[in-house]
Design brief:
single chain; 304 residues; alpha/beta; two-stranded antiparallel sheet
Amino acid sequence: MKFFTKILKAIVSCLGFYLSKIPHWFFVWHIVVLAFIMRAVDRRRYKDAKANLDFVYGEQMSEVDKKTLIQTCYKNFAFVLLETIRVPFIPLDKHTKRFRFIDEEYILQTLEKDKGAVLISAHYGYWEAMASVLPPRYHWCNMASLGRLTQFSAINELIIQRREMQNVKFIDKKGAFKHLLKLYGAENALAGILVDQNISASEGVWVEFFGKKATHTTIASVLSRRFNVGIVPVMIEIKENYKSFEARFYPPIYCKKSEDSTQDILEATQAQADAIEKAIRTKPQDWFWFHKRFKSAYQEIYTH
């Protein structure tokens, strides 16, 4: 297994170095080719995305627009995969220059006032940049990134290596809370959490998302309530044919501290879902429509 891990790392490193040196137009060509291959061999994702779009938009979006949007989703997915492989070989200053930061005062003011914050986002645009372009900007913070590991140790090592490239501690979502409690027990804690995936009802709470019932993690709300820190949404939009990106921050969300902790957490969690939905409605083609987002309440829509 160790030998396989070394081989895989060598292949990924060679590919990343190669992708970092080719002209941008040729890099985009690789994105298009990989997206085409994924569309051809993975029809399940296509059907799941179509089910989501039919469920959310119905006849408000034409069949042609739905098909075009799903094709863009495949391209964005291919971009994130290839970009994640090559980003370690791109100089940090060159990487950062590709980003424009909008309303960054929301996170900066929250960090200054609360001595910590929770960054939330979604599988939207270039979401992996949360672990590459943001950490150097908040270098005084103790940063962590939550993620799911796979059953393959070699792939897990690559995931952790990429996430921790900028001194960000990777925390597996399984059993994450005890690590987060330790992190937020000190000042200047800043964890990045993707909160847009379906989870079981026992793991979270029910919220309204696109006018439908959906489950939502409460991790950010619990941290906000316990440690009095703001929850700051950030969405990283893809611009100009994958040449540049826009990281947009939203006003902080605070979990109240009343006698009804359940209601406090529900309200803060619903506010997070609303912020994510607002960004998706603004630019739906940047969201990862392949997830079975509504599975817990509407499993039947994914019966293909």
